[in-house]
Amino acid sequence: MAAPLGLIAGNGVFPRLVARGAREAGVDVVAVAHVGETEPDLEGEVRACTWIRVGELGKMIRTLKQAGCERAVMAGGIRKARLFSGFRPDLRGAAFLARMRTLHDDKLLRGIADEIESDGIRVIASTEYLPRLVPAPGVLSRRSPKAHERSDVDFGVRVAKAVGSFEIGQTVVVKNGLVLAVEAVEGTDAAIRRGGELARGGAVVVKVSKPQQDLRFDVPAVGPETIRLMAEFGATVLAVEAGRTIVLEREQMLEAAARAGIAVVAVEAPGETHAPPASGGEHAMIAVLRPGSTR
Length: 295
Known about the structure:
single chain; Rossmann fold; 13 strands
């Protein structure tokens, strides 16, 4: 009997999609879920689900090893605010954080992956079972951005890349060449709310990967909730980075965009070219410590 796949689950719908995709491929899934983050209905998608508190790294790895997992995926976000509230590290988790000199996402994720792999469990790409989630360049929605919106998209991509280089966030909200909001530790949803309130309609939301982002573990994500928030505040365009962003529940998201008149486009950042995610362990996944929503 094949070894089960270990699923390290954060918040949002993505862990359920990964579990469902793996199951449809005939792969058994054993999950480690985070109290206060992971949605309870994940339990219905997996063979077994163990609940831990954020920071219980030892219990996480022990659970996967006892289940016989040889591979694991990291899917869904953990709000970084959990590091300051509701954080309950076990001995291994505390020792790990003591060795870390930064709380930057990329270094945390690489460190967590190294800890998991040091116990013989290979961290692989969760897109291995859901390759269609990553869009190629082009207009995804029924409506294309207008010329002035395209200009804001181009500007927003440059700003978001610059902001990302300082490990601040991945999303900016722009209107008429002005930056209205920048995502920080509070997450994408809060940035959309702040920018939307200031814009009073017509805002452009741009979400990209950070220049130094390790896409094996950390891929930006958007979904129906992103469109719902944008519609609430009258935003008109969502631009994501082609080949480096996950689109969750694409059909539902694009239908919601059509109803709201929102254009959705996947663009290439300057100096970067589109490359589809590889299978196996060469590309991959969403952060286990990401601020904000992954929906």
